[in-house]
Amino acid sequence: LVNNAGQGRVSTFAETTDEAWSEELQLKFFSVIHPVRAFLPQLESRADAAIVCVNSLLASQPEPHMVATSAARAGVKNLVRSMAFEFAPKGVRVNGILIGLVESGQWRRRFEARE
Predict the structure, then answer these.
(1) Rounded CA gap, 77 and 4, in Å?
(2) Which Pfam families match (predicted)?
C-alpha cells in the first residue's frame, strides 16, 4: 500500500486560519488513516505486506512560510513510526519516505506565492 496524497499550503503562522489548519491536518492524516484502515485486514494476511507513506522533508526541516504543512507532515512522520511499531508483530512493514522539492506545477505556484 502506497500513500501519496497531499499539497503544500503556503502561509505563516499569523496567516493560517483555523479552517486552514483543519484542512491541512485532515488531508495529511486521513489520507494515510483511511486507506490503512481499509486494507489492513488484507495486509495482515500476507507474508510480505508493506505500507509506504510518501511524506516531505518539511516533516524534519520545517519552513516558516509553510507552518501548517510542516506541522502536519511532522505528525504524519510520527504516525508512520507508531504504525510501524504496532503492525510489526503482525508482519506488516511500515516505512515513510521524505521527499524534497520536485519541480511541478505545485512547486512553481508555491514559489510564485512567496515572491
Answers:
(1) 13
(2) adh_short (PF00106)
| Residue pair 93/82 in contact by the 8 Å Cβ criterion | no
In this structure, are residues 43 and 49 in contact, taking their beta carbons and an 8 Å threshold? yes
Kindly tell me if the per-residue pLDDT of 108 is higher than 90: no
Q: Say which CATH number the domain at 30 has.
A: 3.40.50.720
For residue 1, list its beta bridge partners.
none
pLDDT for the residue numbered 115: 63
Residues spanned by the domain of 36: 2-114
Q: Provide the domain count of the chain.
A: 1
Residues 6+ apart with CB under 8 A from 46: 91
The alpha-carbon radius of gyration of the chain (Å, integer) is 15
pLDDT at position 26 over 70: yes
Mean pLDDT, range 70-85, rounded to an integer: 98
Give how far Cα 7 sits from Cα of 76, 81, 114, Å: 14, 21, 16
